[in-house]
Amino acid sequence: MRIEKSILKWCKTLTMALVLTVAACDTYEPPYYDGPEFVNFEERETTIREGEGEAHIKVNIGGARTIGPVTIQYTVKPNDNAVALYSIENEGSLTIPGGENSAVIKITPLDNALQDGEKIVELTIISVNNVNYTIGFPGPDRLNSTITIKIIDDDCPLDRSFITGTVVETSDDIVEGGEDPDEFPPMFQTVSITEDPNDSKGIIISDFWGLSGSTLHLRLDACPREVTITGHDIIYNDQQEGPLRVTPVGTGVFDPDSRILTMELDLNVPQGTFGKFKFIYKK
Protein backbone atom coordinates (compact mmCIF):
# COMPACT_ATOMS: atom_id res chain seq x y z
CA MET A 1 0.00 0.00 0.00
CA ARG A 2 1.18 3.54 -0.75
CA ILE A 3 0.30 4.68 2.76
CA GLU A 4 2.41 1.90 4.29
CA LYS A 5 5.43 3.20 2.49
CA SER A 6 4.61 6.73 3.59
CA ILE A 7 4.46 5.54 7.19
CA LEU A 8 7.89 3.93 6.80
CA LYS A 9 9.28 7.22 5.51
CA TRP A 10 7.58 8.97 8.41
CA CYS A 11 9.20 6.63 10.95
CA LYS A 12 12.58 7.01 9.31
CA THR A 13 12.28 10.79 9.56
CA LEU A 14 11.47 10.56 13.28
CA THR A 15 14.45 8.25 13.84
CA MET A 16 16.77 10.67 12.07
CA ALA A 17 15.39 13.52 14.17
CA LEU A 18 16.21 11.59 17.36
CA VAL A 19 19.74 10.83 16.13
CA LEU A 20 20.31 14.49 15.27
CA THR A 21 18.95 15.56 18.66
CA VAL A 22 21.41 13.27 20.46
CA ALA A 23 24.27 14.41 18.23
CA ALA A 24 23.39 18.03 18.96
CA CYS A 25 24.17 17.46 22.63
CA ASP A 26 27.89 17.43 21.82
CA THR A 27 29.33 20.91 22.29
CA TYR A 28 30.71 22.63 19.22
CA GLU A 29 32.54 25.90 19.10
CA PRO A 30 32.97 27.43 15.65
CA PRO A 31 36.46 28.53 14.67
CA TYR A 32 37.33 32.09 15.67
CA TYR A 33 37.51 34.47 12.72
CA ASP A 34 40.30 37.00 13.09
CA GLY A 35 40.46 38.34 9.54
CA PRO A 36 39.46 41.74 8.17
CA GLU A 37 35.99 43.18 8.55
CA PHE A 38 33.90 42.94 5.41
CA VAL A 39 30.64 44.07 3.85
CA ASN A 40 28.53 41.89 1.55
CA PHE A 41 25.10 41.26 0.07
CA GLU A 42 23.30 38.48 1.89
CA GLU A 43 22.41 36.81 -1.43
CA ARG A 44 24.00 36.68 -4.87
CA GLU A 45 20.67 36.38 -6.69
CA THR A 46 17.06 37.07 -5.82
CA THR A 47 13.73 37.18 -7.64
CA ILE A 48 10.87 39.61 -7.11
CA ARG A 49 7.57 39.93 -8.95
CA GLU A 50 6.39 43.06 -10.64
CA GLY A 51 3.21 43.45 -8.59
CA GLU A 52 4.59 42.62 -5.14
CA GLY A 53 5.66 46.16 -4.25
CA GLU A 54 8.75 47.14 -2.30
CA ALA A 55 11.45 44.50 -1.85
CA HIS A 56 14.39 44.58 0.54
CA ILE A 57 17.96 43.71 -0.48
CA LYS A 58 19.95 42.97 2.67
CA VAL A 59 23.55 44.13 3.12
CA ASN A 60 25.58 42.69 6.01
CA ILE A 61 28.80 43.59 7.77
CA GLY A 62 30.94 40.92 9.36
CA GLY A 63 34.21 40.31 11.15
CA ALA A 64 35.61 40.18 14.64
CA ARG A 65 35.60 43.92 15.35
CA THR A 66 32.62 45.37 13.50
CA ILE A 67 31.99 48.99 14.31
CA GLY A 68 29.72 51.55 12.79
CA PRO A 69 28.28 53.43 11.20
CA VAL A 70 29.44 52.03 7.87
CA THR A 71 28.45 53.60 4.54
CA ILE A 72 28.77 51.77 1.23
CA GLN A 73 28.54 53.04 -2.33
CA TYR A 74 27.14 50.73 -5.00
CA THR A 75 26.47 50.83 -8.72
CA VAL A 76 23.15 49.99 -10.36
CA LYS A 77 23.17 48.26 -13.75
CA PRO A 78 19.78 47.45 -15.36
CA ASN A 79 19.33 45.44 -18.54
CA ASP A 80 17.46 47.05 -21.45
CA ASN A 81 14.08 45.73 -20.27
CA ALA A 82 14.51 47.21 -16.79
CA VAL A 83 15.46 50.81 -17.65
CA ALA A 84 13.12 53.25 -15.86
CA LEU A 85 10.90 50.39 -14.64
CA TYR A 86 12.01 50.37 -10.99
CA SER A 87 12.95 52.81 -8.24
CA ILE A 88 15.54 52.52 -5.44
CA GLU A 89 15.37 54.58 -2.27
CA ASN A 90 18.55 56.68 -1.89
CA GLU A 91 20.02 54.94 -4.92
CA GLY A 92 23.77 54.39 -4.86
CA SER A 93 24.42 54.72 -1.12
CA LEU A 94 23.49 52.82 2.04
CA THR A 95 24.47 53.41 5.67
CA ILE A 96 24.52 50.64 8.26
CA PRO A 97 24.04 52.41 11.62
CA GLY A 98 26.44 51.98 14.51
CA GLY A 99 25.58 48.97 16.60
CA GLU A 100 23.78 47.25 13.70
CA ASN A 101 25.17 44.47 11.52
CA SER A 102 22.90 44.95 8.50
CA ALA A 103 20.67 47.32 6.56
CA VAL A 104 18.48 47.04 3.47
CA ILE A 105 18.32 48.61 0.04
CA LYS A 106 14.68 49.23 -0.87
CA ILE A 107 13.76 48.57 -4.50
CA THR A 108 10.26 48.86 -5.96
CA PRO A 109 9.44 47.54 -9.45
CA LEU A 110 6.99 49.50 -11.56
CA ASP A 111 3.74 47.56 -11.75
CA ASN A 112 2.51 48.33 -15.26
CA ALA A 113 0.07 46.61 -17.60
CA LEU A 114 2.62 45.89 -20.34
CA GLN A 115 4.16 42.59 -21.36
CA ASP A 116 7.75 43.74 -21.02
CA GLY A 117 9.50 40.48 -20.15
CA GLU A 118 11.97 39.64 -17.42
CA LYS A 119 13.91 42.61 -16.06
CA ILE A 120 17.34 42.31 -14.46
CA VAL A 121 19.01 44.84 -12.15
CA GLU A 122 22.56 44.24 -10.93
CA LEU A 123 23.91 45.95 -7.79
CA THR A 124 27.64 45.98 -7.04
CA ILE A 125 29.36 47.38 -3.95
CA ILE A 126 32.28 49.54 -5.09
CA SER A 127 33.48 51.32 -1.94
CA VAL A 128 33.22 51.50 1.85
CA ASN A 129 33.88 54.63 3.90
CA ASN A 130 35.83 52.64 6.52
CA VAL A 131 39.28 51.48 5.39
CA ASN A 132 39.14 48.54 7.81
CA TYR A 133 36.43 46.89 5.67
CA THR A 134 36.89 44.82 2.54
CA ILE A 135 34.17 44.29 -0.08
CA GLY A 136 32.55 40.87 -0.40
CA PHE A 137 33.36 37.75 1.57
CA PRO A 138 37.08 37.39 2.39
CA GLY A 139 38.95 35.69 -0.43
CA PRO A 140 40.13 36.37 -3.96
CA ASP A 141 36.65 35.99 -5.50
CA ARG A 142 35.03 38.61 -3.22
CA LEU A 143 31.79 36.62 -3.30
CA ASN A 144 28.52 38.45 -2.63
CA SER A 145 29.91 41.83 -3.61
CA THR A 146 27.30 41.77 -6.41
CA ILE A 147 23.66 40.76 -6.40
CA THR A 148 21.47 40.09 -9.45
CA ILE A 149 17.81 41.02 -9.01
CA LYS A 150 15.33 39.44 -11.42
CA ILE A 151 12.00 41.22 -11.75
CA ILE A 152 9.35 38.87 -13.12
CA ASP A 153 6.72 40.34 -15.43
CA ASP A 154 3.17 39.54 -14.33
CA ASP A 155 1.24 40.76 -17.36
CA CYS A 156 1.25 37.76 -19.66
CA PRO A 157 -2.30 36.68 -20.60
CA LEU A 158 -3.72 33.77 -18.63
CA ASP A 159 -6.74 31.63 -19.51
CA ARG A 160 -7.34 29.27 -16.60
CA SER A 161 -9.82 27.18 -18.56
CA PHE A 162 -6.94 25.02 -19.85
CA ILE A 163 -6.91 23.20 -16.50
CA THR A 164 -10.34 23.81 -14.92
CA GLY A 165 -13.17 21.29 -14.88
CA THR A 166 -12.85 17.54 -14.38
CA VAL A 167 -9.15 16.65 -14.42
CA VAL A 168 -7.12 13.45 -13.93
CA GLU A 169 -4.70 13.67 -10.99
CA THR A 170 -1.63 11.38 -11.07
CA SER A 171 0.40 11.15 -7.87
CA ASP A 172 3.64 9.21 -7.59
CA ASP A 173 6.10 9.19 -4.71
CA ILE A 174 9.58 10.19 -5.77
CA VAL A 175 11.87 7.17 -5.43
CA GLU A 176 14.71 7.42 -2.94
CA GLY A 177 18.01 5.59 -3.09
CA GLY A 178 17.69 1.81 -2.82
CA GLU A 179 13.92 1.74 -3.37
CA ASP A 180 12.20 -0.27 -6.07
CA PRO A 181 10.55 2.18 -8.51
CA ASP A 182 8.00 -0.46 -9.53
CA GLU A 183 6.95 -1.46 -6.01
CA PHE A 184 4.37 1.31 -5.65
CA PRO A 185 2.82 2.35 -8.98
CA PRO A 186 1.32 5.82 -9.49
CA MET A 187 -2.21 6.52 -8.24
CA PHE A 188 -4.83 7.99 -10.56
CA GLN A 189 -8.01 9.79 -9.55
CA THR A 190 -10.41 12.36 -10.86
CA VAL A 191 -10.52 15.77 -9.20
CA SER A 192 -12.39 19.00 -9.77
CA ILE A 193 -10.44 22.18 -10.46
CA THR A 194 -12.22 25.54 -10.34
CA GLU A 195 -11.17 29.16 -10.74
CA ASP A 196 -10.49 30.93 -7.44
CA PRO A 197 -13.05 33.77 -7.23
CA ASN A 198 -10.72 35.73 -4.92
CA ASP A 199 -7.63 35.53 -7.13
CA SER A 200 -7.58 36.34 -10.85
CA LYS A 201 -4.65 33.95 -11.27
CA GLY A 202 -5.82 31.32 -8.80
CA ILE A 203 -7.29 27.83 -9.08
CA ILE A 204 -8.65 25.46 -6.41
CA ILE A 205 -8.15 21.67 -6.51
CA SER A 206 -10.92 19.83 -4.64
CA ASP A 207 -10.43 16.37 -3.07
CA PHE A 208 -6.67 16.76 -3.44
CA TRP A 209 -4.69 13.47 -3.23
CA GLY A 210 -7.92 11.53 -3.07
CA LEU A 211 -8.77 13.01 0.35
CA SER A 212 -12.45 13.91 0.41
CA GLY A 213 -13.08 17.56 1.22
CA SER A 214 -9.42 18.57 1.06
CA THR A 215 -8.51 21.60 -1.03
CA LEU A 216 -5.31 23.03 -2.47
CA HIS A 217 -5.18 26.66 -3.65
CA LEU A 218 -2.66 27.50 -6.37
CA ARG A 219 -1.58 30.61 -8.28
CA LEU A 220 -0.56 30.42 -11.93
CA ASP A 221 2.02 32.98 -13.09
CA ALA A 222 1.80 32.98 -16.87
CA CYS A 223 5.08 34.65 -17.81
CA PRO A 224 7.42 32.11 -16.21
CA ARG A 225 4.56 29.54 -16.24
CA GLU A 226 5.16 28.79 -12.58
CA VAL A 227 2.81 27.40 -9.94
CA THR A 228 2.88 28.44 -6.28
CA ILE A 229 0.78 27.37 -3.30
CA THR A 230 -1.39 30.14 -1.84
CA GLY A 231 -3.48 28.09 0.62
CA HIS A 232 -4.51 24.58 1.62
CA ASP A 233 -6.91 22.63 3.80
CA ILE A 234 -5.77 19.02 3.60
CA ILE A 235 -6.81 16.47 6.22
CA TYR A 236 -5.51 12.89 6.34
CA ASN A 237 -7.33 10.52 8.72
CA ASP A 238 -4.86 8.20 10.44
CA GLN A 239 -6.35 5.20 12.26
CA GLN A 240 -4.15 5.69 15.32
CA GLU A 241 -3.40 9.41 15.35
CA GLY A 242 -6.77 10.60 14.09
CA PRO A 243 -7.17 13.55 11.70
CA LEU A 244 -3.79 14.96 10.65
CA ARG A 245 -3.42 18.31 8.93
CA VAL A 246 -1.11 18.02 5.92
CA THR A 247 1.13 20.90 4.89
CA PRO A 248 2.32 20.80 1.25
CA VAL A 249 5.64 22.45 0.37
CA GLY A 250 6.89 22.94 -3.18
CA THR A 251 6.25 24.58 -6.53
CA GLY A 252 5.39 23.57 -10.07
CA VAL A 253 5.07 24.50 -13.71
CA PHE A 254 2.29 24.38 -16.28
CA ASP A 255 1.87 24.21 -20.04
CA PRO A 256 -1.43 25.59 -21.37
CA ASP A 257 -0.79 24.13 -24.83
CA SER A 258 -0.65 20.54 -23.56
CA ARG A 259 -3.14 21.21 -20.72
CA ILE A 260 -0.75 19.85 -18.10
CA LEU A 261 0.18 21.13 -14.64
CA THR A 262 3.05 19.46 -12.76
CA MET A 263 4.20 19.87 -9.15
CA GLU A 264 6.72 18.27 -6.81
CA LEU A 265 5.47 18.53 -3.24
CA ASP A 266 6.65 17.49 0.21
CA LEU A 267 3.59 16.41 2.20
CA ASN A 268 4.29 17.02 5.88
CA VAL A 269 2.32 16.39 9.09
CA PRO A 270 3.21 17.42 12.69
CA GLN A 271 4.71 13.98 13.43
CA GLY A 272 6.90 13.83 10.32
CA THR A 273 6.47 13.58 6.57
CA PHE A 274 4.82 11.35 3.99
CA GLY A 275 7.71 12.14 1.64
CA LYS A 276 8.01 13.90 -1.69
CA PHE A 277 5.46 13.26 -4.43
CA LYS A 278 5.12 14.25 -8.05
CA PHE A 279 1.64 15.39 -9.04
CA ILE A 280 0.50 15.70 -12.64
CA TYR A 281 -2.86 17.20 -13.61
CA LYS A 282 -4.03 16.71 -17.18
CA LYS A 283 -7.33 17.82 -18.63
What can you see in these coordinates?
With 283 residues, this protein is mainly β. It has one helix and 18 strands. The chain has an eight-stranded antiparallel barrel with strand order 11-12-13-14-15-16-17-18. Strands 5-7-3-1-9 form a five-stranded mixed beta sheet, with no helix packed on it. β16 (242-255) and β17 form a beta hairpin. The longest helix has 22 residues, at 2-23.
Task: Give a quick precis of the structure.
By secondary structure, this protein is mainly β.
Q: Output the number of helix runs.
A: 1
The total count of strands amounts to: 18
Helix content: under 10%
Q: Examine the secondary-structure arrangement and name the CATH architecture of the largest domain.
A: Beta Barrel
- Strand order of the biggest β-sheet: 11-12-13-14-15-16-17-18
- Strand content bin: over 45%
Overall CATH class of the largest domain: Mainly Beta
The low-pLDDT segments are 1-5, 12-24
Order of helices and strands: HEEEEEEEEEEEEEEEEEE
Biggest sheet features: 8 strands, antiparallel, barrel
What Rg do the Cα atoms give? 24 Å
Task: Give the helix/strand class.
Answer: mainly beta
The N- to C-terminal Cα distance equals 27 Å
CATH topology of the largest domain: Lipocalin
Basic shape: globular
Overall pLDDT = 87
Q: What is the domain tally?
A: 2
Task: Outline the secondary-structure elements.
Layout: H1 2-23, E1 37-41, E2 45-49, E3 55-62, E4 70-78, E5 86-88, E6 93-96, E7 102-109, E8 119-128, E9 133-135, E10 146-152, E11 165-173, E12 187-195, E13 202-206, E14 215-221, E15 226-238, E16 242-255, E17 260-269, E18 272-282
Parallel strand pairs: 1-9, 2-10
Antiparallel strand pairs: 1-3, 3-7, 4-6, 4-8, 5-7, 8-10, 11-12, 11-18, 12-13, 13-14, 14-15, 15-16, 16-17, 17-18
